[in-house]
Amino acid sequence: MLFTGKSISARGRSALGGRGGKPLLAAGAALLVLGVIGQYGPADEAAAATGARAGEPYRPAPLAWGACHDLPPAPPGGPAPRSLECAELTVPLDYSKPRGKTMEVALIRLRATDRAHRIGSLVFNFGGPGGSGIDHLAGGSAAQFKKLGTRYDLVSFDPRGVGRSRPVHCVGDKRKDEWLAMDTSPDNAREKAALLSRGRAFVKGCANRSGETLPHVGTVAAARDLEVMRIALGDRKLNYFGFSYGTWLGAEYAHRFPKKVGRTVLDGAVNTELNPIRFFREQAAGFQRALGHFGRWAAQQPQAKANAKAKAKGPAKDAVVTRVATLLHGLDTKPIPTDTRRELTQSLGEAGVLTGLYSKAMWPALWQAIQQAESGDGTILLALSDALFQRSPDGHYTNYHDAAGSIYCASTPQRYTERDVAKALPAFTKASPVFGPTLAWRQMGCTGWPVKGTPTHHIDAPGAPPIVVIGNTGDPATPYTWAPALAEQLGSGVLLTLNGEGHGSYTTGNPCIQKAVDTYLLHGKPPVNGTKCQ
Length: 534
Prior knowledge:
The chain is α/β, with parallel strands linked by helices. It contains 18 helices and 9 strands. Mean pLDDT is 89; it is low at 6-15, 17-48, 51-56 and 310-314. It is 40% helix and 12% strand. The chain starts with 9 loop residues before the first helix and ends with a strand.
């Protein structure tokens, strides 16, 4: 799985409820959508979308919007189910064979409230890869984009391989419980053999259950789907808002269809030109840095002040970081109980800590979870882990985990070996003593994958209009340095910086960021390149 998008869906958020249904935290980074029924696009546009010859265009069928089904419960403030509309976009399964088999990409929309001044559609991707845009919108994300929803139909979708769009399936719920609890930072030959065996079994499960789909998921195919979507929505240009992995997808679209780029915002930018080893090593450093920022905050809380002298030496921030590291290290050999039948293992505990670092709003829950775990109860940390992996309280997972691995492996050509990991491990551990080893071993997530990944290529968008690229200096999952790199690669990138905490910027509620983005999307005026918000 790839941590490039804090994609806690509504179903994942349900895992964060405590005893008696009391929420343990308010999970935040999700978003919304909307679409418009449009006319067929010109033949050359359709041909470009599919890669067909000019004389053989692929023409998307009209979108038949109707009532949505099987949506997660909307939280307070979320859109009423009757206000949401859903449709299916028919696209080629294989873009090299546009007249061959087809598949459906599931869409959802919330229509603009000011119809007289409607601009068009604003298409969202909330990250992942593997996150369901439909669940995000229906789960209440639209409230964060209410202002944009006055003049845009807010549109989102489940990318191919995800959720309702020909979902990839690799393993069942029971096996996921077992595998996610396993040690992902092996310390001995037995643990290493178990981890490698699990990887092989996962790949085999994906091939057996979804072998026909695997060659046709990935970032390039999803970018082509966006172009077919634009045509079907009837929009002259694609207006797009991408978060985390969604910035990679948006950049790929801009690279392939620069003349069709509309008002585009890429928040929590991914540097698409990094090889996986450097990508995950820099991400490890980002999470370690965020843990330090959390430690500084936690050290100022009353509980930490009361215990600081007795429990640690040195700076208070470092003392908190040491407590987290000690807790996770202890779980390696001695998991602790929870209020479920599952124990909190080191891997689940680490995932819970990572989840809590995605948003400053989660820090109080994370701090509570750490103290509870230190006392021998891993309930809250397990709930945080379940939110990350999108496991509901009844034990059912969405296909997020399966889709994330499948999409990522289709989007990169590198296939690493155990020797590669061993060589990289010291640098990963130096970058992050807490998270580095696990992220180093993640290099083997695509080893043995049955499909070749898309070769790495330079991302630029010659002739595209301004594309706003946002970076948050405290971002753990997409380190800030990736934002200026992507802005430069695109050529027309306009860099907007938040000196803040958490993954992404717009959904933090920072008024400076929101004003700059809203002004651009609603009125077409981008911020000055290099603008900084506090």
